[in-house]
Design goal:
This protein has 229 residues and is of the alpha/beta class. The protein is built from seven helices and seven strands. Strand 4, helix 5 and strand 5 form a beta-alpha-beta unit.
Length: 229
């Protein structure tokens, strides 16, 4: 399992590192963005058509900020993807259940190992770490943040509001649901949710108010819809 790290040329000590935990959609976007310049480093991957515009935007971001961006595709995504037919996906998940585990639970472990591996790099000593992810993988990233220290911020896009929509962990709903998990994460790190629909998050918002958290500790922002050409 590969961990990719990108930053501006000559940057020895980033001011911030953002770890992107990718699902299949964001993995393809990552490949398309990096292909214009890093095709050699991505040799062996099935590369989609290059996205020159996305690469230029990423390049400008690196020129503006002294940031490093890290990328990891947990098991079942990208290079380790299973047979993508719906029937085979169901069979794989059922086999994990029989072993007393779920794919999502193992992806949480992979995200944690990516965090730990990133911190072994010489230029990452003392660098604030943000986590970022989308959709169901946002839930995986949320849970990974609960088990790793010194996560400065967690940015989650289109996080499912209920475990019935993933991620799936055995018996988790007997204990808590996604709003409670968000509150647990916000007690440890700043959490920013980007949601097209802000409803469904009253529980952590009420808790934040009762505990007199800083307004920036838990933020729920309206997601900007993607433009359609």
């Amino acid at each position: 399992m590969r961990l990719y790290v990108a930053h501006r040329e000559g940057l020895e000590h980033p001011e911030l590192t953002v770890l992107n935990v990718m699902d299949e959609t964001s993995w393809q976007e990552f490949l398309a963005t990096m292909r214009p310049v890093f095709g050699e480093q991505l040799a062996g991957e099935q590369l989609p058509e290059a996205d020159e515009q996305a690469f230029e935007q990423t390049k400008k971001m690196f020129q503006t900020f002294k940031w490093a961006m890290a990328y990891v595709a947990p098991r079942g995504v990208g290079p380790t993807a299973f047979d993508l037919s719906e029937r085979k996906q169901t069979q794989h998940r059922r086999r994990f259940y029989l072993l007393g585990q779920t794919l999502d639970g193992m992806q949480v472990y992979d995200a944690r190992r990516a965090i730990q591996a990133l911190r072994t790099l010489d230029d990452q000593d003392g660098v604030p770490l943000w986590l970022q992810s989308q959709r169901q993988m946002a839930g995986v990233t949320l849970y990974a943040s609960l088990f790793e220290p010194r996560i400065t911020r967690v940015d989650l896009h289109d996080l499912p509001r209920d475990h019935r929509n993933g991620p799936y962990f055995l018996n988790v709903s007997r204990i808590l649901n996604m709003p409670q998990a968000v509150a647990l994460a916000a007690d440890r790190s700043k959490v920013v949710l980007y949601q097209s629909d802000k409803e469904g998050w009253q529980w952590p918002k009420t808790l934040a108010k009762q505990l007199s958290w800083d307004a920036k500790q838990l933020q729920i922002r309206e997601a900007i819809p993607e433009s359609k050409e």
